[in-house]
Specification:
By secondary structure, the protein is of the alpha+beta class. It contains 18 helices and 33 strands. The chain folds into six domains: 52 residues; 76 residues, OB fold (Dihydrolipoamide Acetyltransferase, E2P); 65 residues, OB fold (Dihydrolipoamide Acetyltransferase, E2P); 280 residues, no CATH class; 56 residues; 82 residues, Nucleic acid-binding proteins (OB fold (Dihydrolipoamide Acetyltransferase, E2P), Beta Barrel), CATH 2.40.50.140. Strand 27 and strand 28 form a beta hairpin.
Length: 727
């Protein structure tokens, strides 16, 4: 069946498979079951009513132009490719047939990122040909680099490590920048000979100033961080809402509960008892009223996909006029919202829900700690005034909803988070592990339930939407998990269908043991990455059949599409789905999934650079950490106190030859059996810091655990010379 699907051009669905194999009558039920099993096992991908080999690339994909082949043809590779799956397939990107307008009509160049429609070619060297839909990196995008001057010779060293060559700065184009300063430049010319020339447009300050570090990631990942004049003008022209056509719920004391440093507030909650159960209202800022399909604001939000959060700044999806003003549910101010009212029985089962477009007024703005303190009996006057009328009913409703969550059995990982706290000068003041409060869990659970309601309602109304998908782990990752668990004495039956509850049972076996952190890490790595798609496959981690993002339209474009769908489905007025929205759901899903991964990478790299800058004056210091990754090249170690990540090269592990045991996630001494395994504690000395790259190099001081030498394969050569361990 896989061979048939792989060899068939065009649409291949259940009907085509049945016709090809002469499957009729009752056998079609077995066929449907088989195709479902193949999809769940990761062998097939289902999109709409079409089936394809799961190893195939999706029909719409973000491609990075990798270079030019011997025939002068551009080729690209998938921007996000799992290296464990082998080499990325090459995609031929001919200049002909480019669609779009203006800059999008020009052929892309090396390093550009484009959205392309893929066609299978059957060619071994170029299995796909891509047709340009849209260029994602804009012409004239600024470059961030370090200014270097030696006499009259001035150059820019780009911070993006993918940029292979420096840029030349001509006299008069330097804005009096100083050597070693971080600058923003624009390309002036590219003659094809020698270095490209650039003009300094902005002096960003000293490279050592940690407030500039996030700018490096913004440039490196091409994150749009400046709104055009047209977008800003469109935002400025927006007017405050009127009550016309909306249900007035200003008399209901909804409240916002957010982090203390939150600048925008896009969700509010309220609850009351309903017999043995409860009634909950979740109100979400009505961004769809202001950001209409096809408008300048809409086009910009679609390109950005989401807001990106750095320790020192936010790159918003929408201008502050919307995110911090018109659509921020400020205390005591009238605001438009899309509200869902949910009714739960005493077991936490949702019995009904309904959506409405409302006018609301937040009764209070509380932080998580303020709300929790009031419940715990240590609240301030403001929170205590709401204790009996608002907070206690909310907590009672959460107790009920938590019963439903417990019965649902979502994946329950225990991996503490760390948050960087900056000082006023932009440097790291401290790194903290925020306490996980019931107030956090309350908001999280009500938002999850609201998201479920949105997906259920749109499906029932047959309205197109973008789902938040989280696939079950692949068979390959489950195989690796099975082999790992064997090394610590936990049995996992091969081939069994894994549900989140099965993972929870594994985690329960190690709770409170030395390997608890290790097993949580490995289970996390077994999971698939969540994405946005227009076709539903459920959310594995939350153990939900249907799930869509509805609760944060200020910062996620997926939620805005869902809001528009609800407006259309329930005939709630203006700002519903447009024909373009519906026709391009697959393209939009790929765009925003890529934007999310882009933001995650930029945020992670910024934290790495901040950590490196913070530790730069502690070279030679000794730290306690934990092995967070094992590779053929060495060990990745995460420091306990700060969460900073660094690397121990395998060449520095002296005293034996070390072999990478992939199943055990360990390096094992070939002669002694000395073992360094994922999750083990380790003392390390900081040897080198590279702040620009965010890199730390450690020397391992701890001995490994005792183990058995691996079985040596015939004729296997040692990895390097034997050394004595340094103390």
């Amino acid at each position: 069946m896989l061979d048939f699907i792989r060899s068939t051009d065009g649409k291949t669905g259940k009907r085509e498979v049945a016709r090809a194999f002469n499957i009729k009558g009752q056998q079609r039920i077995a066929l449907k079951k088989l195709l479902k099993q193949m999809t769940e096992k990761g062998l097939l991908r289902k999109q709409s009513r079409s089936l394809s080999d799961a190893a195939d690339l999706p029909p719409v994909l973000v491609v990075e132009i990798a270079g030019t082949d011997a025939d002068g043809e551009l080729y690209g590779e998938p921007l996000n490719w799992d290296e464990e799956a082998g080499p990325a397939p090459r995609i031929l990107m001919p200049a002909r047939g480019a669609s779009g307008q203006g800059d999008d009509k020009r052929p892309p160049g090396e390093g550009d990122r484009v959205l392309a429609r893929l066609i299978k070619t059957g060619d071994a060297d170029y299995p796909y040909e891509g047709k340009l839909i849209r260029r994602l990196t804009r012409s004239g995008t600024r470059v961030i680099g370090v200014f270097r001057a030696s006499g009259r010779n001035m150059r820019i060293v780009p911070v993006d490590r993918k940029t292979r060559h420096d840029l030349e700065v001509r006299p008069g184009d330097d804005m009096d920048a100083r050597d070693g300063e971080l600058v923003s430049v624009e390309l002036v010319s590219d003659s094809g000979r020698g270095l490209k020339t650039a003009r300094v447009r902005e002096r960003l300050g000293a490279l050592e100033d940690q407030r500039n570090i996030s700018l490096i990631a913004i440039s490196q990942h091409d994150i749009p961080d400046r709104f055009s004049d047209d977008v800003m003008a469109a935002a400025a022209a927006l007017k405050a809402i009127t009550p016309a056509g909306r249900t007035d719920i200003r008399n209901i004391p909804l409240i916002t509960i957010d982090p203390p440093d939150a600048r925008d507030h896009d969700d509010a909650v309220w609850a009351e008892a309903d017999g043995d159960g409860c009634r909950v209202i979740v109100a979400i800022a009505d961004v769809s009223w202001y950001v209409r399909p096809g408008s300048e604001l809409d086009k910009e939000a679609r390109i950005r996909g989401n807001s990106t959060y750095f320790p020192d700044r936010v790159v918003p999806m929408l201008p502050e006029r919307i995110s911090n003003d018109l659509c921020s549910l400020r205390e005591g101010e009238d605001r438009p919202a899309l509200a869902v009212t949910m009714v739960f029985d005493k077991s936490g089962h949702k019995t009904s829900h309904s959506f409405d477009r409302v006018l609301m007024r937040s009764a209070a703005k509380l932080s998580y700690h303020e709300a929790q303190a009031a419940i715990d009996g240590t609240g301030d006057d403001k929170a205590n005034m709401l204790l009996d009328t608002v907070l206690k009913p909310l907590w009672a409703a959460y107790d009920i909803a938590a019963r439903g969550r417990h019965n649902r059995e979502p994946l329950e990982l225990n991996l503490p988070e760390r948050k960087i706290v900056l000082a006023e000068d932009g440097t790291i003041d401290r790194v903290v592990s925020p306490e996980r409060l019931d107030a956090h869990k309350l908001i999280e659970e009500f938002m999850i339930q609201a998201n479920v309601c949105a997906a259920e309602s749109l499906e029932a109304k047959r309205t197109p939407l973008i789902y938040r998908l989280h696939d079950a782990p692949s068979q390959e990752k489950l195989r690796i998990l099975h082999e790992f668990l064997q090394t610590i004495g936990i049995k996992l039956t091969k081939g069994q269908v894994m549900k989140p509850g099965a993972f929870n049972k594994i985690l329960a076996q190690v709770r409170g043991k030395d390997v608890e952190h290790l097993v949580n890490e490995v289970v996390l790595r077994t999971q698939a990455q969540a994405v946005y798609e227009a076709e539903n496959r459920g959310h594995f981690g939350l153990n939900l059949r249907r799930y869509a993002h509805f609760t944060s339209p200020i910062r996620r474009y997926a939620d805005l599409i869902v809001h528009r769908g609800l407006v259309s489905a329930f005939d709630l007025g203006e700002g519903g789905l447009s024909p373009f929205d519906i026709e391009n759901l697959n393209e939009t899903s790929e765009l925003i999934s890529t934007a999310e991964r882009r933001s995650m990478a930029a945020e992670r790299q910024t934290v790495d650079r901040l950590m490196a800058a913070w530790l730069a004056d502690q070279v030679g210091g000794i730290f306690r950490g934990r092995i967070a990754g094992v590779a053929r090249a060495g060990l990745f170690v995460k420091l306990n106190e700060s969460g900073a990540d660094g690397f121990v090269p395998i060449s520095s592990l002296n005293g034996d030859y070390f072999i990478h045991d992939e199943a055990a996630q360990a390096l094992v001494g070939e002669r002694t059996g000395e073992t360094f395994r994922l999750g083990d504690t380790a003392d390390v000395r900081l040897l080198e810091v590279t702040p620009l790259a965010g890199g730390l190099r450690f020397e391992l001081l701890s001995d490994g655990r005792k183990g058995k030498p691996p079985k040596r394969k015939p004729n296997k050569k040692p990895m390097r010379k034997k050394h004595k361990r340094r103390r």
